[in-house]
Amino acid sequence: MNKTKVVVLGASGFVGQSFVRSFSLDPSIDLSITSRNLSTGALFFDILQPETWSALLEIKPDIVIDASGYGIVKNQTDLHMLYRVNYLDKRDLIDYLFKYLPELFWVQIGTAFEYSLENEALDEDSPCFPRTHYGISKLLFSNYLQMVVKRQFTILRPFGMFGAGEDISKLFPLLIEAQKSRKEIELSDGLQKRDYFYVNDLADFVLDLVRHKTIFKLEKEIINVGTGEARSIRELSQIISEKIEGFDHALWNWGAIPQRQGENQIFYNASVKAKRLGFISTNLDEAFQNTVNYYHNL
After folding, report:
1. b or e along 133-169 (b: 16 or more beta carbons within 10 Å of the residue's beta carbon)?
2. Which residues pair with 268 in a beta bridge?
3. Which one of 6, 173, 259, 291 is separated from 186 by 20 to 30 angstroms, measured CA to CA?
4. Element housing 224 (H / E)
5. Do residues 134 and 72 touch, judged by C-beta distance below 8 A?
6. Residue 24 structural domain
């Protein structure tokens, strides 16, 4: 059997880890992962060090899945680094790869933050006027793919994701950690509505597209990935609370701080494109149980 050679960039990150978990179990995939750490046994690669890029040429991958990024975690505040990692150096990387690997297919993991979030229901034709540097930098690279590269790529724009490996500063890990450590945290009212899904579902979706070669038929496509349903943060948190033994509601101090200035009250995926292509979202009860178990055992 001819295996599909896949490289995952950003394999140590939250989203990248989920791709490694899913793709490593499939016998039809020859998976390579990259790392900036020489001691991991992974392929040494650093987007900020062009001298490491040739390592990808030696593998000759059929597909590169770009799950790398900077700026979504609270302590990632270096704007110069953000634009280098998410756009400037990545632009140079893809030019380099297509020069030497002209048959390569690139799967870009973008973000819903590329859109103008003033619109509540977002599909692939929604206007893109991002308000965050993270969203702007991701959109710049998406535009580069569409306007300059113009071939052999698919852009996925996931909405909110949760699950194993998410940084502890993010909302759901923070809620779980507060219960685990028995320390109160101050929260906004939690009435904001978002479209959240289990991170493994994105990886499984892409794996299915790769396994059946469907991904190659989606050249130059943009695909939103989400459940299509907006739920309040409080509603989602209630599901989590039911999974935590000895839950203490007093540790989640809702309404203690204001919402962030200019925060959008609701946005969600209004596209059915991903579902038509086979995207399946895990039941929230099961997904949050898995997530609670992961952080409880850390």
Report:
1. ebbbbbbbbbebbeeebeebbbbbbbbbbbbbbbeee
2. 121
3. 291
4. strand 221-225
5. yes
6. 4-167+196-229+269-282
pLDDT digits over 100-119, tens only?
Answer: 999 999 999 999 999 999 89
pLDDT digits (tens, 9 = 90+) for 43-83: 899 999 999 999 999 999 999 999 999 999 989 999 999 99
**Tens digits of per-residue pLDDT, 133-150?**
999 999 999 999 999 999
Count of residues making up the chain: 298
List all residues 6 or more positions away from 65 whose beta carbon is below 8 Å from its beta carbon: 6, 7, 8, 9, 19, 107, 109, 206
Q: Report residue 252: phi and psi, to 5°.
A: -105, 95
pTM for the complete prediction? 0.96
CA distance 115 to 131: 9
* Number of domains observed in the structure of the chain: 1
CATH of the domain at 125: 3.40.50.720
For residue 179, tell me if it sits in a domain.
Answer: no
Residue 39 pLDDT > 80: no
Assess contact for 239 and 162: CB atoms under 8 A.
no
Is residue 164's pLDDT more than 70?
yes
Calpha distance 138→83 (Å, rounded): 9
> Does the residue 203 lie in any domain?
yes
Structure tokens that stand for 297 in this block: 């055992």
Distance CA 189, CA 197 (A): 21
Q: pLDDT at residue 181 above 70?
A: yes
DSSP reduced 3-state for 244: coil
Cα-flanking dihedrals φ and ψ of residue 18, to 5°?
Answer: -65, -35
Residue 294 within a domain: no
d(CA 106, CA 91): 12
